[in-house]
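Page 42, continued from yesterday. The earlier attempt failed because a stray header line got pasted into the input along with the sequence. Redoing it now with the clean sequence only.
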Amino acid sequence: MSIRMQTSIGWSLLALAVGLQILPGCRNPGQSSLPPSAISPAAQPLPPMPKGDVYADEAVPTAETPIEPGDILDIVIRRGAGEEKFTSVVRENGVIGASFLEVMVSGLTAQQAEGRIQEQVIPYMRNPRVQVVLKKKSLKIKRVFVFGDVRKPGAVPMARNMTVLQALAAVENYNESALLEEIRIVRGSLDRPYIVTADLARTFTYGDLSRNVGLEENDVIFVPREHLGDASEAAKKIMPIVQMAIAPFYPAFLIPAFFPTATIR
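This time it went through. Structure tokens are written below.
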């Protein structure tokens, strides 16, 4: 077989391997080819997605954390050398019981609750000193979901006033092939979802923070992949086959390069 024929066969196999692999490899797996009308209705009504009780940055009480029904307050009332301790659960109406007192504390901070309790204790005690420690009830953290061309996709605990940029930082950033101009946020109920688009490329280029969209609980954030990323994924699938296809023809390329007068039969 002549070198020219072997070379021709090698290139033909290479083209065939590329053709077979590049078609499925270049389609973005997050991009549907079906129109919206092709989506079938659910066989039965889907339950709403569960909601959390607090934001991620409110799971640990701070000096500004408001007291809410279900919270537990550890109350210490000191007078002179003595003290009285009470542990009270905030009732649904926002009231707690401390000794013989009924005090409205819902919406107050722990420091404000100390002042409120002290005001009601003063008629019965001389120079009382009140200390309140807030213990939040066991709560579910609000969350959003990040998928697509990011480092660690999945559920992300949601902080108050969280934005798309903060959500991407929580999943250890986006990949180099991410298409930041068309980040999609799916929100709304399961029977009536809608899409909001964020453009972080404009945020990074022009400092336009208006394109850094604020998030709502249970938002689904999808970061698409640009076509260069599709080609890179296709190349990963193609290269092993290409190497196997052209391996038998290495002598046809290498021998003439090093031995111009050689003839392969």
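Notes: The chain has three domains: 3-24+229-258, 29-52+141-224, 60-135.
Reminder to self: strip header lines before submitting.
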